[in-house]
Amino acid sequence: MANTGCQVTARAAICRFARFSVSRFLINLYTMSLDERFNKAAENVKNLKSKPSDEDLLELYGLFKQATVGDVNTSAPGLLDLKGKAKWNAWNGRKGLSQDQAKEQYIAKADSLVSSLGLA
Prior knowledge:
The chain is mostly helical. It folds into 2 domains: about 1-30; about 35-115, Acyl-CoA Binding Protein, CATH 1.20.80.10. It has 5 helices and no strands. It has helices at about 5-30, 35-45, 55-70, 80-90, 100-115. Helix 3 (about 55-70) crosses helix 4. The radius of gyration is 21 Å and the shape is elongated. The two termini are about 40 Å apart. One of its GO terms (molecular function) is fatty-acyl-CoA binding. Belongs to the ACBP family. Pfam families: ACBP. This is ACB domain-containing protein.
């Protein structure tokens, strides 16, 4: 079956639009500042289709705190506060990591979770 002029024109328009969309996405990706990409990643984590594992959540928590506050600045919670202790340990485990490095690692982890769990 031969292509009609409309089919060729429509196909070309779709291809142009797809190329434009991909190009625009890549430009936005490379022109967004680290803080903008970090904030976008944090927003994506809030909108995941399903809840990540506790291990993933602790990793995200530790990276987020290191990225936003820096090295842990509070004393460890008491032995009976298991959840608080786990969160503190996740943050304290990032001690010495720069805030920018923590942001990059957070973005990578968030992107990995978006890829595996999807966005709502």
